[in-house]
Amino acid sequence: MGEPGRCGDQLPGERRAGVGRRRVEAVPTSPVFVVRCGAEVLAAAGYRHWPGSVAHLCVLTGSQFRNRGLARTVASSAVAEALRNRLLPQWRARPEPSRRLAGRLGFRELGSQLSIMIEAFGPADSNRDSTWAG
User: Residues with Cβ < 8 Å from 18, sequence gap 6 or more?
Assistant: First the structure.
């Protein structure tokens, strides 16, 4: 495990925060932005191209590194990249912290999606995600 105390000193400015652009081999068109502490990835964000020039965002932060602004750092970089590529950023969020971050980044809630798993294929479950667009 890295030393997050030392990484926190690096947060002002993208370069010093260790935010870097990397390509994912399995999806060569999806840029990924990361915050690292040494070799350890603390947070990452990227997007996939969806139909209609949509950039479907994904943001991940290690549970022990949350509430430090790392998700906002990587997410804002991914959103900026999508906009540079003339894509419409989309953020589908269910957990409240994710919804708050989407709002802080300027996304507006435009709708919701209901997902239902049929019991024959696994445990009964119903999830509702909100869809946000920038």
Answer: 7, 10, 34, 35, 36, 37
